[in-house]
Amino acid sequence: DSGVTQTPKHLITATGQRVTLRCSPRSGDLSVYWYQQSLDQGLQFLIQYYNGEERAKGNILERFSAQQFPDLHSELNLSSLELGDSALYFCASSTNPTGGPLGEQFFGPGTRLTVL
Amino acid sequence: AQSVAQPEDQVNVAEGNPLTVKCTYSVSGNPYLFWYVQYPNRGLQFLLKYITGDNLVKGSYGFEAEFNKSQTSFHLKKPSALVSDSALYFCAVRDKIRGTYKYIFGTGTRLKVLA
Asked: Do A102 and B49 make contact, defined as CB atoms within 8 angstroms?
């Protein structure tokens, strides 16, 4: 168990809808990362927050947004959902913005999103 | 452009035999390289990393990786494979892009260890 929690575990919704995925980082970790894992795209970095501020942006669509709250939990909002958004969404955390003491990130179990 | 390549979608190896999972990278500066493992229905777990120093890095579960600067490779190895090593393995590189650090992951290699 990495100490990173994600809810919900599974989410099934329809095209055009909006969903919110939630992540709680490991205790003491200030940085949160979001990734999308799909069969054809592999693991894609979406966005990183550090202590409430956006730190780095990857291949995140304009329909997607994220934020990190004062208690350090983070939410990823996906709107106007399309079939192609079906994927596993992972959250990871680390102690500092450049990774943990070894440079590593700690991953949550993921949220599986299915768009019908 | 920064990238990570894992040329094999799947690697099959017999239990007890040595295993190698290949990774090559392309970065603008000095690479920070990582290996992660993903078991079914789980998140990724950190295995090992290379930043500087000895080119042979030892990590969790008996895995090691060899950094080769001239070949821009960071292959994952284990002397004797176990059935329980069967999982999806990701190579990743951390690079500084326009002042911020980003992690780039390879597409993953599925390792199947046969009993």
From this structure: yes
